[in-house]
Amino acid sequence: MTKAAADPQLVDLPALAAEMIRQSPGPIAETAIGMLLALSKNLTVIIGHNGFKALFDRSMHTAGKKYPWLVAAEDSSDRLWGPESLKAALCEQEPHEAGQATALLFSTLLDLLVALIGQALTLKLLSASWGIAFDQAVQGSTQ
């Protein structure tokens, strides 16, 4: 596990996630799904699969108010946590639109996490999920 050495009060987690998405060399949909799957893997250990699905669904619903095509991406059989349908929806959008929607989705999800478990624990969770790239982004934002 990597360790982010930063004061949690100084870290804007949603902005860092958005920056990681923007800086990624790959397609936005691939980057977003990779980040979500890594976060899901680590977070389900703490709150379970249904807990992660509930957070993700709430984030999709909230982001879907500005980007209605995100709500249509929800998996109709499960209505919660559908990475394949989200990826397809992101791929159908212009890169700028997909990037903006993804940033809002992550912003909402991270704000919920901070509200539930606090910023310090969320920071550790993201470091464990997103590794060195996240740690470097944190260090760069606090210098």
What is the distance, rounded to the nearest whole angstrom, between the alpha carbons of the first and last residues?
22 Å
What's the Cα radius of gyration?
14 Å
* Proportion of residues in extended strands: under 5%
Oligomer: single chain
Globally, the shape reads globular
Q: What is the overall number of helices?
A: 6
* Main beta-sheet annotation: none
- Give the domain tally: 1
Q: Provide mean pLDDT, rounded.
A: 82
Q: Which class of secondary structure composition applies to the elements?
A: mainly alpha
Order of helices and strands: HHHHHH
Unreliable spans are 1-6
Number of strands: 0
Helix content: over 70%
Please give a handful of descriptors for the protein shown.
mainly alpha
Question: Quick gist of this model?
Answer:
76% of the residues lie in helices and 0% in strands.
